[in-house]
Amino acid sequence: MYGLSPTDLEIRARARAFADELIPYEVEAELAGGQLEPKVAESHHRRALELGLYATNMPTDLGGGGYTLLQQVLVQEQVGRVTNGLGWVMHTPAAWFAEVATPYQRERWLLPTVRGEMQECYAITEEGAGSDVDAITATARRDGDAYLIDGVKWHVTSYDHAAYAFVQAKLESREHALFVVDLPSPGVRVVRTPEYTHTLTHRHPIVAFEGVRVPVSHLVGAEGDGMAFSYAWFRFERLMVAARCLGAAERLIDEADAFAATRIVGGEPLRDRQLVAAMLADSVTELFAARAMVYETAREIDTDLKLAHARCSMVKLFASEMANRVADRAVQIFGGRGYMRENVAERLFRELRVERIWEGASEVQRLIVADQLAKRGVTGLV
């Protein structure tokens, strides 16, 4: 199916089995604000490492899995089947960092991250700059053998789990630069931690950087490279968002179909009612189309960076909107049960909404695709 090799199928089966180990903890996490007992959470982390499902996107010479992009998609697809962010233990560090890290950065942050000893977060988004990264106002000013960083970043996902942050700021030249900032560091403070629609242990605080002194050794790449790294991250994350949406949609269809098969209404299974059957049929058809798109993109992404940028936007747009439609139908099929937090449809209905926003909103993806269509034409794009 989908032209997957025996190795691909084995990786998918391994990731699926691990996801199935995590699923029984979902309701416990939901009712505890996303938290699990520390020993349980640590055991999940160790298990991901043991199974080779951690840092799958990193080269083997750094201790990573060395998986193909398609194989990474297969793993993240299973991550998407698990609610409450429990599947995030199958973590993918910043793969682009491996290509530009200095020997010092490699030893201090990269290798420990690949080994699962520390984790990173991204501090890029600001109150007035979301998908339009060039609109950031955070600054980095050279001061002798260091830079002074000032700015306030929003939605710093996983800050509470991170040992360091990638912080993007503008230089006096107005070029973008990216820095590694250890957490905690003098001048770094949490302004506040908003509550979000989903229930995850990974929080998204607003973080202020106030005169944070960062040694020159913490500059990633060269001055002016910041946007290139952001684009690389966006391409990867948009594809992985799409992959996780596939897994979420599959889980929803499985659960809704099983419920509809056993729920008796008027003497017959709910699934035999034509309007319900149509919702299930539409959902599985859309999943098939989205999966074909995502797998094909994963196979072809390395051929042309600009085309890859457009394709990742296309699959993120299609898969995230598809999964939201499937979630809405699943809640409807479950009826009142679908509005209960203990029900997977209710949790995924909330969790999937952000997939149409972060890593570039659906409207931004449409603009990217339309721009590439104007430049390449239909044949050049698809």
TrEMBL record:
What positions does the domain Acyl-CoA oxidase/dehydrogenase middle occupy? 121-194
Q: Which chain regions cross the lipid bilayer?
A: none
Say yes or no: keyword Lipid biosynthesis present: no
Q: Which domain of life is it from?
A: Bacteria
One biological process term from GO is: fatty acid beta-oxidation using acyl-CoA dehydrogenase
A GO cellular component term found in this entry reads: cytoplasm
Q: Which UniProt keywords apply?
A: FAD, Flavoprotein, Oxidoreductase
Segments forming domain Acyl-CoA dehydrogenase/oxidase N-terminal: 7-117
* Pfam families, alphabetized: Acyl-CoA_dh_1, Acyl-CoA_dh_M, Acyl-CoA_dh_N
Which GO MF terms does the UniProt record name? acyl-CoA dehydrogenase activity; flavin adenine dinucleotide binding
PROSITE patterns of this UniProt entry?
Answer: ACYL_COA_DH_1, ACYL_COA_DH_2
Q: Where is the Acyl-CoA dehydrogenase/oxidase C-terminal domain?
A: 224-373
Cofactor needs: FAD
Family assignment?
Answer: Belongs to the acyl-CoA dehydrogenase family.
Q: What is this protein called?
A: Medium-chain specific acyl-CoA dehydrogenase, mitochondrial
- What is the scientific name of the source organism? Cryptosporangium aurantiacum
**Which classification does the entry list for the species?**
Bacteria, Bacillati, Actinomycetota, Actinomycetes, Cryptosporangiales
